[in-house]
Amino acid sequence: MADSKPVLYSYWRSSCSWRVRIALALKKVEYEYKAVHLVKDGGEQHKEGYKTINPMGQVPAFEFDGKNFTQSMAIMELLEEYYQNCCKILPSDPFERAKVREICEVINSGTQPIQNLSVMKKHSSDQAERNEWSRFWIEKGLRGVEAKLEKHSGKYCVGDTITMADCCLIPQVYNANRFAVSMEHFHNINRIVACLEKHEAFIAAHPDSQPDAQ
Amino acid sequence: MADSKPVLYSYWRSSCSWRVRIALALKKVEYEYKAVHLVKDGGEQHKEGYKTINPMGQVPAFEFDGKNFTQSMAIMELLEEYYQNCCKILPSDPFERAKVREICEVINSGTQPIQNLSVMKKHSSDQAERNEWSRFWIEKGLRGVEAKLEKHSGKYCVGDTITMADCCLIPQVYNANRFAVSMEHFHNINRIVACLEKHEAFIAAHPDSQPDAQ
């Protein structure tokens, strides 16, 4: 076990930080929360101090056993490997694990990076165009997720146990709501989200429950 | 073992297909190559036949043991878990594994999805603007990769053994060259790429070696 408490560098509304917060809460890992304000003064993530932790200038970063880790998928996989005995977030069967990672990646690489703040800002200076951009990519991504859920979901995204895929789904749906994506046709997503929202780990990890929430 | 030969749905120039081709070549897995032309007639990936294999309309897809898998990271992780004894592409230490997945994700989620064809096309109808867009995101991503390599690389991206990170690096550098990204400051990337390019698995997986190469 690590000597000191791990540290999560997070921003309350960052969906990638949120995924890791859910995984940490599911596994009941105690950690120190360090807020990195993504908007104030042009963004604390771009300051030199934080750049030594993550040169990409993004959250989350996870300080663990004296080492820094970045990228939410890499951090969740690390948590799963390190805290093997507390609440598995990947199934034991390799095919099922692949199904979980597929859904994660439809969100993690296929949706979130394109709709995020920095990309939206680079795309256009016009707010209406930015919103249309993000809405378009989120809707496309969630259609992909819904198609996979139609095949593989149980009570949760893959089967009846909470996995990394559920950790990725909840923040993406929050973004969908922020950008007024019509959710009416996403029956499986809506069903699973309604279920996850009641779970204590998901309540604890919600942006509004974070110390830097506004 | 699977009864029949696995099938890879691929496009010669698709960087995500290319990653999987490298992993398959490293592990010496025999497979059937099915070309999906991403450009001809508006893109074969959008046709109904392919949409049943991958509703997202993207390559690669991997047919294995009667099941379809998508998302290059999920497929590479599956290959690593299934073909455990042939050429590991993840280190055994969890911290080192996290370092590999970090580099993968800087490319897989932080770079490639933003610079890819469909996003570039949605951003602008002007070719010069499209090129500037892709160049900008590739350069940003490779700066992130270079910073990580500065810390963790050996002969390859993480240590002296080829990993998934190397499978992701090569196609991204190919894209960088396509978009005339200046590579002169990426000393570690250049060094590692020069080394990988001579490796037989990387030669076999190169776009120009594929049956649908143009």
CATH class of the largest domain in chain A: Mainly Alpha
Task: Summarize the helix and strand pattern of chain A as letters.
Answer: EHEHEEHHHHHHHH
- What percentage of amino acids of chain A are in beta strands? 5-15%
Shape of chain A: globular
| Average pLDDT, all residues of chain A | 95
Q: What is the helix fraction of residues of chain A, given as a range?
A: 40-55%
Give the radius of gyration of chain A: 17 Å
Give the spatial strand order of the biggest sheet of chain A: 2-1-3-4
* SS-based class of chain A: alpha+beta
Architecture per CATH nomenclature, i.e. the level-2 architecture of the largest domain in chain A: Up-down Bundle
Low-confidence stretches of chain A: none
The beta-strand count of chain A equals 4
* Oligomeric form: homodimer
Predict the CATH topology of the largest domain in chain A: Glutathione S-transferase Yfyf (Class Pi), Chain A, domain 2
Count of domains of chain A: 2
Domain GST N-terminal (chains A, B): 4-87
Pathway (chains A, B): Amino-acid degradation; L-phenylalanine degradation; acetoacetate and fumarate from L-phenylalanine: step 5/6
Domain GST C-terminal (chains A, B): 93-214
Protein name (chains A, B): Glutathione S-transferase zeta
